[in-house]
């Protein structure tokens, strides 16, 4: 057996990833806010329920899309 051999995959598998909860989205947006990467919230404001629901609806609860949208990487 080679150490770095390539896997021989015969078929593709689809894995359903559940939507992010409101608490998960809030903590993700709060992290972006504290690191200065969140464009919708300035320094005086905080992440509120409106922002959480906005991104949850906009991105269907997908964490990767939320991060791209929050940091203007669409």
- Secondary structure category: mainly alpha
How many β-strands, per DSSP? Answer: 0
> Helix content range of the residues, please?
40-55%
Strand content: under 5%
How many helical elements? 3
**Could you list the spans in which at least 5 consecutive residues all have pLDDT below 50?**
none
Gap between N and C termini: 43 Å
Mean pLDDT: 79
Main beta sheet strand tally, sense and closure: none
Taking all Cα atoms into account, the compactness measure Rg is 17 Å
SSE order in H/E notation? HHH
Global shape: elongated
Question: What can be said about this structure in brief?
Answer:
It contains three helices and no strands.
Characterise this structure.
The protein has 74 residues and is mostly helical. It has a domain at 22-70. Helices cover 43% and strands 0% of the residues. Helix 1 packs across helix 2 and helix 1 (22-35) packs parallel to helix 3. The mean pLDDT is 79.
Topology (elements, then pairings):
Elements: H1 22-35, H2 49-58, H3 63-70
Helix pairs in contact: 1-2, 1-3
């Amino acid at each position: 057996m080679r150490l770095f051999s390539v896997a021989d995959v015969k078929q593709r598998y689809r894995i359903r990833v559940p939507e992010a909860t409101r608490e998960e989205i809030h903590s993700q947006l709060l992290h972006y806010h504290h690191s200065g990467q969140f464009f919708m919230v300035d320094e005086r404001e905080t992440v509120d329920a409106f922002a959480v629901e906005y991104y949850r609806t906009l991105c269907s609860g997908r964490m990767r899309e939320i991060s791209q949208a929050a940091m203007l990487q669409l």
